[in-house]
Structures are given as C-alpha cells and as structure tokens.
Specification:
- Helix content is 48%, strand content 9%.
- The chain folds into two domains: 156 residues, Uridine Diphospho-n-acetylenolpyruvylglucosamine Reductase, domain 2 (2-Layer Sandwich), CATH 3.30.43.20; 284 residues, Cytochrome P450 (Cytochrome p450, Orthogonal Bundle).
- By secondary structure, the protein is an alpha+beta fold.
- It has 18 helices and eleven strands.
- β7 and β8 form a beta hairpin.
- Bound molecules: protoporphyrin IX containing FE (HEM).
- Protoporphyrin IX containing FE (HEM) binds next to α6, α13, β6 and α17.
Length: 449
C-alpha cells in the first residue's frame, strides 16, 4: 500500500490507537465507538490508512465529496477483486478474517463495465417485478409469526428473535424456497455472518442455492429466482447461484441491521416518543448517522495515480466509509438545508444498492407491525450496556433486550404458500416449523456450540 499519509497525533483519550501507522477498524474499541475513530481519521484528510483485520491494510475514504468522486469514476477505480495486489503478492493471507466479504466471486458486486451491466440488469429487472403489496403482506405475516413466538413471554431480544430472522424468512418467500432448501439457506447465511463454522455454512448455502436453481429450472414459479433465470441476460447455472447468494447475503445482513439500528434509535431517542408516526424519519436518521454498512464498497485503482492528494498504486484496496462520509462536520448544514436522502448509506454510482425501495419497505413494515403488536415495548437494559458487533464493515447490535406487556397470540399468522413457490413441500413458515422443527433446533444448537 503506497498511499503517503502523515499520521496525526491521537488526542488524549482517543481510542483510535494506531497499529504500525494504521488505525485498526477491528476489535471491541472500534465496535464500541466508531464515530470516535472517524473523528480521528478525518485528521488525515479525505483518506486515511486503516487496518481491516490483522495484516489487512486499506485506504479508507472518509470525506463525502471524495467518496462520491471515487464511486462515480468507474474508469479509474474497479470492483474486480482479482486486482487486489497485496493478496496476489501473498502479503495478505487468503484465509484472512475479511476474505469472505472481499474475495472475488462471479457476481455483479465484483464485476465491471459491460459484464456488470448485464449481471446487474438481471437483478434490477427481477427485483423490480416484486409486487410491493405482496412484499408488505408477506413481511407482515412473517412479523406476526415471529412476534407470536415471543409475545407471551413479555420480553424479547429484538435482534435475535426478530430483526435477524425476519429478512431471511421474507427472502425464502420472495425467492420461492421450499421448506427444506429454505431451512438450509437460513442455516448457511446465519452461520456465515455469525462466523460460526463459516466455511461449512457457506458450503451449505451454496449447495442449497444450487438445488433451488435446479428446482426452478424444472418448475419455475412466480418468484425472483424464476424471474432471474428467465431474464434475457441468460444467466448460466453458476451465475445464477452466485447472483442468488449475493442477493441473499447483500440483503439479509444490512436489512437486519437497518431494522435493528432503527429500533435502537426509536427506543433510545426521546424525540421519537410517539413511535408510530416517526418511523420514516427514524430510518432516514439511522441511514445518515448509523448506517448498517459503515465501511465497504471496495475498489482498486486501475493504475498508479494521485487521488485526493495521496499517491495510490494499481490494485491498492480502497474502501468508502459511508458512516464517516455521512457524518462529516461540513455536511451538517447541507443536510439541514438539502435533501434528507442525500446520504451514502446505499452507496452511489454504478454499484449503488439496487434494492433500496424493497429494503426500505420491508423495514417500515417490520417496525410498524412490531409496534402495533407491542405498543408499550421498551428497552429492558441500560442503553450503555448494549454491545455492538465487532468488524470493520457492518454496524449492528449483538442483542436488543426489551420488555412489553405479554399477550397470548390468537393465531399463528404464517405466510401462505404461493402458486409456483413450492414443490410438494409446505412452504409456509408454520409448515417450515412443522416439517423441520428438528432441523431448526439442531441448527440453533449447532450455531451456539
Ligand atoms: C432487499 C434487501 C437488499 C438487497 C436484495 C440488496 C442487494 C444488493 C446488491 C445486489 C448489491 C450489489 C450491487 C452492484 O454491485 O451493482 C448491493 C449493494 C449495496 N447495498 Fe444492498 N441490498 C439490500 C439491502 C440493503 C440495505 C438495507 C442496505 C443498507 C442501508 C444496503 C446497502 C448497500 C450498499 C452500501 C451497497 C454497495 C456495496 C458495495 O459496493 O460494496 N443494501 N445491494
């Protein structure tokens, strides 16, 4: 990594102590207070040297307009991770802890130019066919089902019991997963993100998605998987598997954190005391100040060049700090005066999130429905005891313990099976439990082993 940065001296008490001239974005210190790190990193200028995991170095763009400049210049900055020089030269090990997120896969996230356009168009067109009423209905049904699982307890961890599970159940429905495949998708994605036997979990996920592709080739239905394979991009089986796995992974983890971070905001900020009416506002404030993906958008300079006053070399790993860019002091006034949606939480440029509308709709519905069912829900622990998960990319709580007046669920509102969404299996959430409750609990035991 060749970027020439002059290290500023950390102010007394600053948590951002450097490791070999780089600021570590891993470990409990960063997880506890990332904004303190961003404040410090801004002293370097628009970009700063960071460490993503022991031995994995990167340049982080922390300034809003510099971030936009990089994200919109796809000629100078490429997404194909096979350009990552330090990995290619063996100076970063291939099994480093951030490899799962950064390593190349043949999907739209890691492609450039015409290939990117082709793969992305297949995703935007297929996701564009999702009917928003159907999405709202199935989110509501999944939400009802999850609440019915803990409603009589009078307490719940709204991360583990709700925000973490809801996106995956909704995706199973959206992608037309029959119960047995959906069960393994839940298992695979959860294991990968929790880092518990992550390699095995990834194998299970890719195996399950491969089966889903084979199934839908034989029996297409009214679901995103079938629409993706019918698209004029004519994706082959390998591309189908990688595009589907990308959708599941790129969707579930940030959605979980958008729901969790917004719930956290609603439960801890007095300004949202009347929760019902302010969900949209709380989501926007979360996207500005506590975005689910805080640092990502890995890019690699196509050639040696000067960027934002620093020399960068072809193949250097460069990341965007959406969280730092959104919260820069120069932006505060502009944010008040301008659009409340000009934040970078969905990224920008050709690789910006293609699914922000459905993601927002799932989030609004999930939170609205939860507050309708649990009108007096409140945090059950002091706010400062809440723990945030470590890691440089995501921003999300480990748990969100709450209490509320318990109620006896009237019925289990499970999503109904749709035509074309299933084989002979029962695809409802209730059916999923009936048929696979053994598997599901084995899965939970396995995860916590
Ligand atoms: C329905 C849920 C979601 C789906 C299916 C989805 C899907 C995707 C896909 C396929 C990409 C890659 C686009 C490309 O490379 O051209 C992407 C990128 C991105 N998404 Fe989403 N997403 C979802 C939810 C979210 C949420 C909740 C957030 C956070 C607010 C988010 C933020 C981003 C960002 C920042 C990127 C750019 C990442 C990068 O360049 O490294 N997404 N998303």
């Amino acid at each position: 990594m060749d970027a020439q940065h002059t290290a500023p001296v950390p102010p007394p008490g600053c948590p951002a102590h450097q490791v070999g001239g780089r600021v570590p974005l891993h470990g409990p210190g960063f997880a506890a207070d990332p904004q303190a790190y961003y404040t410090y990193l801004r002293h370097y200028g628009p970009t700063a040297p960071v460490e993503l995991a022991p031995g994995v170095e990167a340049t982080l763009v922390t300034d809003y307009s510099t971030a936009l400049q990089l994200l919109q210049d796809s000629g100078s900055f490429r997404k194909d991770a096979r350009r990552w020089r330090e990995l290619n030269e063996g100076r970063v090990s291939r099994d480093n802890p951030v490899a799962a997120v950064l390593s190349y896969r043949p999907n739209c996230m890691f492609s450039d130019g015409v290939e990117h356009l082709r793969l992305r168009q297949a995703i935007t067109d297929s996701m564009g066919r999702v009917d928003s009423r159907r999405l709202a209905r199935s989110t509501e049904q999944v939400s009802d089902y999850l609440v019915s699982q803990f409603g009589s307890r009078g307490s719940a961890d709204l991360l583990g019991d709700y925000a973490k599970q809801l996106p995956l159940f909704v995706f199973n429905e959206l992608f037309g997963c029959p119960a047995d495949i959906g069960d393994r998708v839940l298992f695979g994605i959860t294991g990968m993100f929790d880092g518990v036997n992550a390699e095995r979990a990834a194998e299970v996920l890719y195996g399950a998605v491969g089966e889903l592709v084979a199934l839908k080739r034989a029996q297409p239905g009214e679901d995103v998987t079938s629409w993706l394979m019918q698209h004029e991009a004519k994706l082959n089986d390998e591309e189908m598997v990688h595009q589907l796995a990308l959708l599941l992974a790129a969707g579930s983890e940030p959605l979980r954190n958008l729901i969790g971070n917004t719930l956290h905001r609603l439960l801890t900020h007095d300004a949202y005391a009347h929760k019902g009416g302010l969900i949209d506002e709380a989501i926007d404030d979360t996207l500005w100040e506590n975005p689910p993906l805080q640092n990502l958008a890995p890019h690699y300079p196509a050639s040696d060049m000067e960027f934002a006053g620093q020399k960068v070399q072809a193949g250097d790993l460069m990341l965007i700090s959406f969280a730092a860019a959104n919260t820069g002091p120069a932006l505060a006034a502009a944010r008040q005066a301008g659009s409340n949606r000009a934040h970078l939480a969905w990224s920008a440029g050709p690789h910006a999130c293609p699914s922000k509308e459905p993601a927002r709709q799932i989030t609004v519905t999930a939170i609205e429905n939860l507050f309708n069912r649990l009108p007096d829900v409140e945090l059950s622990v002091p706010e400062d005891s809440l723990v945030w998960r470590p890691g440089p990319f995501n921003r999300g709580l480990a748990t969100l313990p709450t209490r509320f007046t318990p109620f006896e669920p009237v019925r289990e509102n499970a999503p109904r099976a749709r035509a074309g969404a299933s084989t002979s299996h029962d695809t409802t959430v209730a059916g999923h439990r009936r048929e696979h409750s053994g598997k599901w609990s084995q899965f939970l035991n396995w995860l916590t082993r």
